[in-house]
User: Which sequence fits this backbone?
């Protein structure tokens, strides 16, 4: 009986503690100190474990393949920037206060951990020690991956573009701008991104390419990174804005080496 | 009880945090990234939490769940609020352990059935997965949509189901290092003893409330050291001898009144018992030979064992003497008088059988029965009180008054087990009502044909002008229901007592 009473007391304490943690984290918008503490504790361990699993996957941080992948990432970033400059450099420069070329550097990293079933977040093997900060664009050789949401010394947490919390400003090849958001059911559909254009008169056609529009200072998204193509147009008759589902270039379920665009 | 070594205990104690940490890391770095069909992954942390909960106690379950969930909450790729999974896993672990404890303590033998454990674990895991989804919905996590839940939940539970036997096996293996290993009787023995006990109780129709057979009830987890004969004579003059389960087997034969036939697996011992003037040899082939003779008037009962032990019982209704002797270790002499009985007990230092005898005018410290039914209460070694109600020669017997039966809640036998051994298991003997013998108690021994139906409280010699007491607890009864003479009330009360209910 005494034991049971003590158990109940401990249970009540634990529940109150958990509710308090949730409340604090809710108030801080999911960025309370608990997460940074957890990152400090688990980050190095995950780093090591990620190296081990990466070695088994064959796509570790060493080897020719990964070197080529890094080079590919770098080239992709440069290409995106070049294309941006070529198309409407002046317009973007005035809009985004872009100053010069080659302003970005890509820090390569490998994915070492992934979030649970409900969240589309991954942990990568580079952190603030490599110059990575929060709200920086993450891409790989195929296209946009996501953005950095939190950083520890050796790891960084990336919110994928398919996450329901993610919204990316995009630009079509025709110049129309819109917003691309995750649908939280990336696992089920083949087109896990939902596109919504701001111009009501635009007609979307499947196959159109979607690239990032860019943010001020390149954070959280640098301009010109390809994201995907329009898969199905879901515009309802009479709706204000044209909508579509977008098939991303990047394979979000098999991420290996990614690059983080850091400001120089 | 075999206590685990210090190293084993330290290993088991250190294994839990280490395993929890490893499970969190493996979950995030390996399992979540496995390209499993359906896009789901088993939740190793939840599995570990629930497995630990069903193997250990609710306290451990709640603590493990809290810290495991908290680790999942704050480990880097987590995007939900810190504390969500801690809350869910904590409650899940506690509830699962509670359910498992309740199930196993209510089972017949208190045995831990692996299938039940596993079933509880699977249900707990499913509840945990549902709780993860529920708290996400509750906190309006944009990732946790109805479509996502519909897709994730069945797959996750399915993968958990696949992984659960392995996790449970591992956890049980490690947890087994830290737990004392009871040198317990095999299940078959216990069932057998329980059946015998229940048969006695049924047959005696309440006349022998203090009857307990060895091996059931309190001594369930730690059967006594090997050589300790127990002799119990129920109130109607039957001798039942049950032995530590591993070595001895009981065979009872009650002459003139049918009998119990225990499973014929071990034909080692026989007790034959005749009511009066009969001669019942009880013989065991290998070691022991017990002979009992029981006479109503001045007869002598002899019991002899050739190799080790020699027990002699002499029993007379009037001024007779009972001898109880074992050459090597034990020497007990009984003298039995119907009126003014003398109890003598002598023993070598190791074991101390005590015999209390009381007649109508017993001057010793023994408790007395009113009436001329002598009672012997040998207290055998080890502080385990055994009750011996001996009323063979006297026929009707008053119910014991002011005698607290040693294990007065024999159904809840675990209460006499030290609490350390009893974590989560209550040792209740199996009480199965089958194979109830057809003979009746009490005066049936006189002549088996003219069996008087023994009905407690009716036709029994009862003390005058004294309030009747509860047979089981020996406490004074104040309720009219208890004192009622209606047999059905009494049976109902007895039933309630058996199932542990309080009136």
Assistant:
């Amino acid at each position: 009986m005494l034991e049971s009473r003590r158990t109940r007391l401990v249970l009540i304490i634990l529940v109150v503690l958990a509710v308090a943690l949730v409340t604090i984290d809710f108030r801080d918008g999911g960025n309370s100190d608990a997460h940074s503490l957890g990152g400090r504790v688990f980050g190095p361990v995950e780093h090591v474990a990620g190296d081990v699993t990466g070695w088994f996957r064959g796509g570790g941080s060493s080897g020719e393949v990964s070197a080529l992948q890094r080079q590919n990432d770098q080239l992709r970033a440069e290409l995106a920037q070049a294309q941006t400059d070529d198309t409407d450099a002046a317009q973007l420069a005035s809009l985004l206060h872009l100053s010069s070329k080659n302003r970005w550097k890509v820090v390569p990293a490998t994915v070492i951990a992934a979030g649970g079933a409900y969240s589309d977040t991954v942990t990568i093997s580079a952190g603030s020690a490599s110059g990575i900060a929060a709200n920086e664009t993450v891409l790989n050789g195929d296209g946009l991956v996501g953005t950095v949401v939190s950083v520890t010394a050796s790891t960084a947490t990336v919110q994928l573009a398919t996450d329901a919390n993610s919204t990316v400003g995009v630009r079509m090849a025709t110049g129309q701008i819109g917003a691309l958001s995750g649908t939280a059911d990336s696992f089920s559909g083949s087109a896990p991104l939902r596109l919504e254009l701001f111009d009501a008169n635009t007609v979307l056609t499947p196959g159109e390419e979607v690239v990032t529009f860019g943010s001020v200072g390149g954070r959280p998204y640098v301009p010109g990174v390809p994201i995907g193509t329009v898969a199905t147009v879901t515009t309802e008759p009479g709706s204000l804005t044209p909508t579509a589902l977008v098939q991303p270039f990047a394979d979000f379920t098999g991420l290996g080496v990614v690059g983080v665009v850091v400001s120089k | 009880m075999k206590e685990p070594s210090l190293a084993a205990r330290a290993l088991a104690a250190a294994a839990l945090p280490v395993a929890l940490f490893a499970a969190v890391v493996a979950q995030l770095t390996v399992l979540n990234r496995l390209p499993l069909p359906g896009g789901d992954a088993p939740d190793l942390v939840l599995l570990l939490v629930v497995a630990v909960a069903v193997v250990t106690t609710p306290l451990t379950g709640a603590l493990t769940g809290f810290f495991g969930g908290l680790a999942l909450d704050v480990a880097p790729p987590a995007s939900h609020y810190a504390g969500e999974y801690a809350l869910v896993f904590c409650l899940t672990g506690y509830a699962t352990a509670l359910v498992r404890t309740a199930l196993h303590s209510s089972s017949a033998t208190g045995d831990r059935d692996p299938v039940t454990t596993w079933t509880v674990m699977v249900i707990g895991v499913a509840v945990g997965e549902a709780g993860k989804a529920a708290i996400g919905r509750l906190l309006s996590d944009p990732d946790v949509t109805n479509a996502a839940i519909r897709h994730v939940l069945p797959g996750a539970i399915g993968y958990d189901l696949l992984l659960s036997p392995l996790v449970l096996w591992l956890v049980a293996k490690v947890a087994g290092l830290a737990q004392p290993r009871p040198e317990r009787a095999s299940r078959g023995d216990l069932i057998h003893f329980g059946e015998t006990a229940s048969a006695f109780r049924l047959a005696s129709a309440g006349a022998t409330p203090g009857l307990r057979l060895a091996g059931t009830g309190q001594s369930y987890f730690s059967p006594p050291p090997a050589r300790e004969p127990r002799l119990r004579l129920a109130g109607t003059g039957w001798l039942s001898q049950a032995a530590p389960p591993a070595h001895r087997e009981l065979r009872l034969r009650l002459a003139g009144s049918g009998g119990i036939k225990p499973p014929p697996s071990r034909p080692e011992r026989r007790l034959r018992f005749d009511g009066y003037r009969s001669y019942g040899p009880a013989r065991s082939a290998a070691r022991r030979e017990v002979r009992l003779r029981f006479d109503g008037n001045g007869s002598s009962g002899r019991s002899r064992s050739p190799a080790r032990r020699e027990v002699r019982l002499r029993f007379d209704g009037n001024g007779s003497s009972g001898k109880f002797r074992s050459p090597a270790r034990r020497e007990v002499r009984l003298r039995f008088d119907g009126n003014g009985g003398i109890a003598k007990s002598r023993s070598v230092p190791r074991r101390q059988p005590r015999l209390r005898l009381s007649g109508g005018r017993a001057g010793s410290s023994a408790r007395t029965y009113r009436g001329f039914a002598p009672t012997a209460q040998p207290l055998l070694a080890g502080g385990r009180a055994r009750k011996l109600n001996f009323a063979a020669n006297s026929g009707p017997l008053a119910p014991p008054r002011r005698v607290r039966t040693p294990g007065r809640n024999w159904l809840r036998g675990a209460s006499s087990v030290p609490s350390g051994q009893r974590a989560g298991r209550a040792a209740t003997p199996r009480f199965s009502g089958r194979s109830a013998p057809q003979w009746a108690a009490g005066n049936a021994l006189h002549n088996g044909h003219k069996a008087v139906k023994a009905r407690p409280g009716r036709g029994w010699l009862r003390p005058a002008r004294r309030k009747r007491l509860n047979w089981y607890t020996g406490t004074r009864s104040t309720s009219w229901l208890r004192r009622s003479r209606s047999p059905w009330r009494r049976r109902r009360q007895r039933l309630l007592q058996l199932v542990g209910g309080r009136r």
Observations:
- Residues 213-460 of chain B have pLDDT under 50 and may be disordered.
- The radius of gyration of chain B is 29 Å.
- Chain B is about 35% helix and 10% strand.
